[in-house]
Amino acid sequence: MSEFWAYLQLGFSHITDPGGYDHILFVIALCAIYNLNQWKQVLILITAFTIGHSLTLALATLQLINYSTDVIELLIPVTILITAITNFFFKVPKSRFSDEAKQSPGRYVLALVFGLIHGMGFSNYLRSLLGQQSSIVKPLFAFNLGLEFGQIFIVLAVLAVAFVLIELMRVRRHDWNLIVSGIVAGMALSLIITNEYLAQL
Length: 201
Hints:
The structure is a single chain. The protein has one domain. It contains eight helices and no strands. By secondary structure, it is an all-alpha fold. The chain is about 75% helix and about 0% strand. InterPro entries: Put_HupE_UreJ (IPR032809). Keywords: Membrane, Transmembrane, Transmembrane helix. This is HupE/UreJ family protein.
C-alpha cells in the first residue's frame, strides 16, 4: 500500500507541478469555455482526455510503443496552442445556464487524440521513476490515478475562479474566455519557440 500511495502522490504532484506547467495549461485550455453549471460537459471532456493519456501511458510505460521523446515534447505545447485557439471561436450562449458548449463533439475527439500525446509525455517521467523495476502494473495504475485526481483538482480550481469572476463579479464570460485562452496560447507559443528540438531542425 505504501508503494501504491507513493506513486499516486507522484502522479498528482507531476500534473499539478507549476515547474512542469504544460499539462496544467492544457487542462485549463480545455475547460476555459465552460462554467460551473456545465460540470457534466467538463466531466465528459476530461474523461476523453483521461482515456487518451491512460492508453498511451500504459503502452509506452510497458514499452509496447516507441516514439521520439523530443517530438512528443514539441507536440505537447502544440496541442495546448491548438486547444486555446479553438476557444477563440466559441460563441457564448445567450443564457448562462445553456448547454451550448456541448454542441461540438469534435472538442471531445480533440481531447481524446491530444490525450494520446500527453500520455506519452507522462510515460517519460514514470519510466524514469520505475527504472528496472520488474512489476510495474500497480505503480502504473497508482500513477495514472494520481494524474486523474490532479486533473480534477485543476478543473475545480479553474471553474471556481470562473464562477467567482463571472457570476459574482460580473465579468463577461466572453472576456474571461479570451483572456484565459490568450494567456494560455501565448505561453504555449513560447514553449514551442524555445523548444530545443525545433531549434535543431
